[in-house]
Amino acid sequence: MKKFILCLMLLPALFTSCYKDEGNYDYKELNEITVDTVGVKTSFVIDQYDSLVIEPKINFSLSALPETALSYRWIMYSDAWGKDDTETTELSTERNLNVQITAPASATPYAVRLYITNKNDGSSYEMKYTVTVQPSVVSGILALHQDADGVDFDYIATAGAVMIDKNKHMRNVVSSILDRKLSGNAAAVSAVRVNYTTLINRVYVATDEEFMQLSGYDFAYECDINELFYDIPSRLQLSKVKREGQTPYCTILVNDGSVYNINNQASQKWSNTFSDPLRPSSDLGERIVVSPYYYIPDANFPMASAIFYDELGKRFVRLPKTFYETEEIVSFDPQVSTAFDVNNVGKDLIWLGKGYNNHAFAVMTDGSSRELYRADFNKAETIYDEDGSPEYNEELNDLALRIYDLTSLTDIEKAKFYDLGLYATQLMYATDRDIYVVSISGSNVRCEKINRDFPEGEEITALMIWNPDMNIMRSLETTRGKYLYVATWNGEEGKIYEFKIARNTGRMDNDIPDEFGKVDAAAPVNVFDGMGKITDLCIKLQGKDNFDN
C-alpha cells in the first residue's frame, strides 16, 4: 500500500519533467573554432629578449568568420607544477603573435595560451603552446648611446669574437627593462663579474643624473642610486666601475675625483652599496683629485687593490690591499728608479690603461708634449724566501720602467681615444677620423694609420680592443686581441664597426672572403647601426657560474 501511494506522488513530477524536455527550442549547429596543429610547431625554444612569433591557422567547422567577429587574447605564465593561468602576463590581442619575450630564462617551460572568442555567440576556443626561454646574454660588448629621448645601451655579441653561431644585437636594453631611457648626459657603462661567487655579476650604467645596477645574467633591474650610495654625491661625474685580477675583492668607482669601493673582505658579497669617499693619508695632504682612469693589478695578492693618478699632486697613488671598507689612499714607498718617480711625475694624465705584460701605460703631457709612461704596478706585496718565510718585496721600490716620446707621431695632438694591445708593446689611438697603431721596440717608436676612411660625415666617438679578462673567460683566449670595435656618429645615427686585427701588430687582418671570394684585410667584419651617439664601450663577460662560459 505504501509503495502504491509513493508511486502516485511521483507521477506529477514525471509528467512535469517530460514537459520541459519537450520545449520549443531552436537548435543550431555551432560554428566551432579550432587551430590547426598538423605539421605546425607548438613548442618553441627562444633566447630571452628575442621575439616570439606565432601565426595560428584558424579553422571553422561551418564557414569562416570575418576578423571583425573574432577577438584574441594571448597570455603567458610559468608551466611549473602547481602553477596555472591565474598569474599571467598579457602578451597581445592581435591574431598573430609577434612580441619580445622578457620573462627570465628558466629550465621550466612557460605556457603561452591563445584564447579566440566568437563575438556573435560568445563561444570560445583556447590553444596552448610551450615556450622554453634560455639566456641570451653571452659574452659581448655594451655600447652606451644617447639621443633626444635619453640614454640607453645596446648589447652586441658576434660570431667571431664570442664564437657563437650567429650575431646577437639587443637594442635599447634599458628601455626594454624599464619602458624608459635614462635622463641626463651619458657617462659610462661597465660590467663586473668574478668567478668565485655568482652573486657578483653586474652591469652598471651611469649618466650625470642617474646611476643604475642591472643583472649581468639577463639585464634585469636590480637597484638604483639610492641603494648604490650611503649618501648620494651632490655631483655625478661617474667613471667606469672595475673589478679585475686573480684575487678580486674590491669593486672600484671614481666619482668627481673621489674613490669609492665595495670591499667584499669587509662587506657581504651581496652588498650593492659603495663606501663613502676614501680619504687620503696624511702624507698625501688634505686633498687629492683622482683621474677617472685607473689601473687594477693582476698579481696574486698584489700590493694594491687599485692604482690612481692624483691630478692635483701629479703623482700616482694607491689603495692598499685591505680588509677594511674605508682604507685610506696612500703613496708608494720611496723609489729608486731612474726612469721617473711614481710619487712625483709632474705631468698631466691624458689616459691610463693596462697593456703588454700587465704593465701600466699612461699618456702624459706638459701641455705641448706627449709621452707614454710605463710602470710595473703588478707586484706582489710579499714574497717568500727559500724556507717559505715571508719577506718584503724590494721590487716595490723600483716601479717605473720607461718613458717613450710620442710627440712626433702623426696627429698625436689630435688623439681622443686610446687602447692597448696585450700581445706586444703596442698603443692604439684615434682622432675624429683616423686610427693609428704605435709599435714600440726598445727606444724606437713609430706609428701607422690602419683604417680606410670612414663614410663622409662620420666621426669616431669610441674605440676598444677586444681584450676579455682571462681570469674570467679563459675560453676566449683564441679571439682575445683579434677584434677592434670603433663607434662613429654622423649627426643622425651611431654605428659600431667590428674589425679583425692581428693581435701582435694591431694591423687590420680581415681574412674572411666577401660574396665574390675576395679578401679585404681593411674591411669591417660587421657593422651595427641604428643607435644614438655612442659615448662609451665595455666588454661584458657571460653571466654563468662556471669558469669558461
Automatic annotation (TrEMBL):
UniProt protein name: PKD-like family protein
InterPro entries xrefs: PKD-like (IPR032183)
Pfam family membership, one: PKD_2
Superkingdom per UniProt: Bacteria
The species this protein was found in: Candidatus Caccoplasma intestinavium
Lineage: Bacteria, Pseudomonadati, Bacteroidota, Bacteroidia, Bacteroidales
PROSITE patterns assigned: PROKAR_LIPOPROTEIN
